[in-house]
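Data deposition worksheet. Section B asks for the primary sequence of the deposited chain exactly as it was used as input, without tags or linkers unless they were present during the calculation. Section C holds the resulting structure in token form. Section D is free text for depositor observations; keep each observation to a single sentence. Incomplete worksheets are returned to the depositor.
Section A, Depositor: J.P.
Section B:
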Amino acid sequence: MTLPPPDSRLPIAISIGDVAGIGPEILFKTLQREPAWQARCRLFGPRAWLLEQARRYGLTPQVEDLPLAGQPAVGQIDAVAGEWAYRSIVAATTAVLQGRARALVTAPIHKEAMQRAGHVYPGHTELLAELAGGVPVRMMLANPELRTVLVTIHMALRQAIEALSVEGIVQTLSITDASLRRFGIGRDREGGRPRLAVAGLNPHAGEGGLFGREEIDMIAPAIARARARGVDAHGPFAPDTVFMRARGLRQFDAVVALYHDQGLIPVKYLGVEQGVNVTLGLPFVRTSPDHGTAFDIAGRDLADPSSFAAALQMADELSRT
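Section C:
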């Protein structure tokens, strides 16, 4: 699926996420701090409920109403909130696919709540890929200092290692390269291409086969195949040092990590408040804050909206390139 370039005059679609968590709070705090965003965003959810919540922050946002029944229970895993989250994601994504919005920002969801409502997906990424027509996608976590892209996402570590393949790594490198080029990242480097590092799987990237042969038999051949296709990929590098080499976006524009925690721990350690989740491979820009629903502080006005604000800002910037 290929969409035309987005019109910067169109609004950014916002799915409200799990309203039993901190989603509404970080959304409205962001709009309150930057009032100009109200006119540039469109929320998808139950209009009356959202406007009632927004009035507490002195806001009157644009809302595309969804006929949703029930009343969510704040701070709890709740099927009503799960259903609202699912329908909001579908409606907001549809608006982007139909050309009524130029990018998508999603508030955090709780996977169990959505599954209680009958919608079984490992996470946002898999649902969005399905809505976009089953396109292959990858998760990128980014902040001002580091970008990491994952080969495998939401699965047990043992399964993630078993799921690794030459083809999967090559596809990840190809999707990352194409997406970053689309965003204008790497055009200032020699050759005008984003420079990608690939982390090894084993300690010291296998130490020449001493600690495992995945680097020799799978990762290095995948890098060679990607390079033959024009991707500026390098590695495999020792996973305990490659992120330091990429910090500050100096040596590399992104690091391709092989499993969930390998890639996400370095980004989150640098500060969750600036982290943004970007889905690569979709025919549109989608971002999300780099944290969850935080049920423990929901409804207490304690949530920091910085990551949501960063996600909104990044969606705006990427959808203009």
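Section D:
The chain has a mean pLDDT of 92.
The CA atoms of residues 169 and 222 lie 6 Å apart.
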